[in-house]
TrEMBL record:
Location in the cell: Cell membrane; Secreted, Extracellular space, Extracellular matrix
InterPro entries recorded: AB_hydrolase_fold, Lipase, Lipo_Lipase, PLAT/LH2_dom, PLAT/LH2_dom_sf, TAG_lipase
Organism of provenance: Calidris alpina (Dunlin)
Example GO molecular function: apolipoprotein binding
Class of this enzyme: hydrolase
UniProt record similarity statement: Belongs to the AB hydrolase superfamily. Lipase family.
Record protein name field: Lipoprotein lipase
Length: 238
């Protein structure tokens, strides 16, 4: 865990020289490193950070309040344990759903992954999470990221989306809500909500979306710009 081992030397904590191949799942790494419940820094050959390594889906405050309402404060420690223990459940998930392993992607930073920039599988850039991990030994730590669902099976499908906004005048708006729908050869996933922190004319924006539905090969995409009540876009469109 983090508080005792974040700054410990390699002999004291888990490290790449502990085994032929060491892969690490980092869940619940939040706050300053010496107070984070999970270890933040890479300590294996590959280090996987589900959902960026922070709070895990299904472990939010709303879930905690529901738990307290149902069972009282006796289980309040489950809130802390929920995210931290997700690493165990993700590994169990990889045993129960061996034929559909969750996929993690090599990326330098969490921010780059959130932009959908790292969804490549060339040259060992992606790997299975858990039991069926490909044992790729590297000279330096490899950081990998993925998104998951709130419950088993945790696997989701990741997509990079790029949007370019054309306009005759230069306009910038912030926090714009969108809905995106994906239609594929097997299924469809409609109205995935996301917010672009910034929208500017004559710029391209890249971001990550994910869905638990296996749509197969992507055939069509629909994008809906949610109505913004504060101002009108009609001038910009014309």
């Amino acid at each position: 865990a983090g508080p005792t081992f974040e700054y410990a030397d390699a002999l004291t904590r888990l490290s790449p020289d502990d085994a032929d191949f060491v892969d690490v799942l980092h869940t619940y790494t939040r706050g300053s490193p010496d107070r984070s419940i999970g270890i933040q820094k890479p300590v294996g050959h590959i280090d996987i950070y589900p959902n960026g390594g922070g709070f895990q889906p299904g472990c939010n405050l709303g879930e905690a309040l529901r738990l307290i309402a149902e069972k009282g404060f006796a289980d309040v420690d489950q809130l802390v344990k929920c995210s931290h223990e997700r690493s165990i459940h993700l590994f169990i998930d990889s045993l129960l759903y061996e034929e559909k392993p969750s996929m993690a992607y090599r990326c330098n930073t969490k921010e780059a992954f959130e932009k959908g920039l790292c969804l490549s599988c060339r040259k060992n850039r992606c790997n299975n999470l858990g039991y069926k991990v490909n044992r790729v030994r590297t000279k330096r730590n490899t950081k990998m990221y993925l998104k998951t669902r709130a419950q088993m099976p945790y696997k989701v499908f990741h997509y990079q989306v790029k949007i370019h906004f054309f306009g005759k005048t230069n306009t910038t708006k912030t926090n714009q809500p969108f809905l995106i729908s994906l239609y594929g050869t097997l299924d469809e996933s409609e109205n995935i909500a996301f917010t672009l922190p910034e929208v500017s004319s004559n710029k391209t924006f890249s971001f990550l979306i994910y869905t638990e539905v296996d749509i197969g090969d992507l055939l069509m995409l629909k994008l809906q710009w949610e109505k913004d009540t504060f101002f009108s876009w009609s001038d910009w469109w014309t």
